């Protein structure tokens, strides 16, 4: 009997299948900004790499490939309904994205009263991730510093494991409108 040399089996890898209309990202910061560009201006001040959730329906959808923190504005003008932008709802309804969400930061307007930063609260509760910070409109220099430092600390403390969110538990309009 001759000895058979066996090569070790490589560990399984996760494969993300993307359609031609999808854009894959490996950034750990993903954001949505409306046509006002307030959230984009905040991201620019952070001076970090970030991927933007598409604004228009016909644009390629975004698919996360690694754990990330989401930054989103709050909609609804203080009414508490429709707080999470539809584009963010669509993005998080993809189980590939929702399963990698680690935390949320919300922009808002203090004129909204109790609904200030409400989009972050809704996403945090629905996706069972921490609400990390909220800031007004496009943020102050102090907000920028606190978020930059906070994200750095968060990624050093957080395990690089996605939360266990069942694939059928998406965010729908009813959930997001409160």
Features:
alpha/beta; disordered N terminus; two-stranded parallel ribbon; 5-stranded parallel sheet; RNR_NrdI; 7 strands; disordered C terminus; 178 residues; Rossmann fold; RNR_Ib_NrdI_bac
**Class by alpha and beta content:** alpha/beta
CATH superfamily: Flavodoxin domain
Kindly state the percentage of residues in helix: 25-40%
Distance between the termini: 71 Å
Could you characterize what this model shows?
The chain is built from six helices and seven strands; from the N terminus they run ββαβββααβαβαα. The protein is of the alpha/beta class. It has one domain: Flavodoxin domain (Rossmann fold). β2, α1 and β3 form a beta-alpha-beta unit. The chain starts with 21 loop residues before the first strand and ends with a helix. This is Protein NrdI. It comes from Brachybacterium kimchii.
């Amino acid at each position: 009997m001759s000895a058979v040399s066996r090569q070790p089996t490589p560990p399984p890898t996760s494969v993300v299948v993307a359609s031609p209309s999808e854009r894959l990202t490996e950034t750990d910061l993903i954001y949505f900004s409306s046509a006002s560009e307030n959230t984009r201006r905040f991201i620019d001040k952070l001076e970090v790499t970030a991927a933007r959730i598409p604004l228009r329906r016909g644009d390629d959808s975004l698919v996360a490939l690694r754990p990330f923190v989401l930054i989103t504005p709050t909609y609804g003008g203080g009414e508490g309904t429709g707080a999470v932008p539809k584009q963010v709802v669509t993005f998080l309804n993809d189980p590939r994205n929702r399963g990698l969400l680690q935390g949320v930061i919300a922009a808002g307007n203090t004129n909204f009263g109790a609904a200030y930063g409400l989009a972050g609260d809704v996403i945090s509760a629905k996706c069972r991730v921490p609400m990390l910070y909220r800031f007004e409109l496009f943020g102050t220099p102090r907000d920028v510093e606190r978020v930059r430092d906070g994200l750095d600390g968060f990624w050093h403390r957080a395990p690089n494991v996605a939360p266990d969110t069942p694939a059928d538990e998406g965010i729908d309009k009813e959930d997001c409108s409160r």
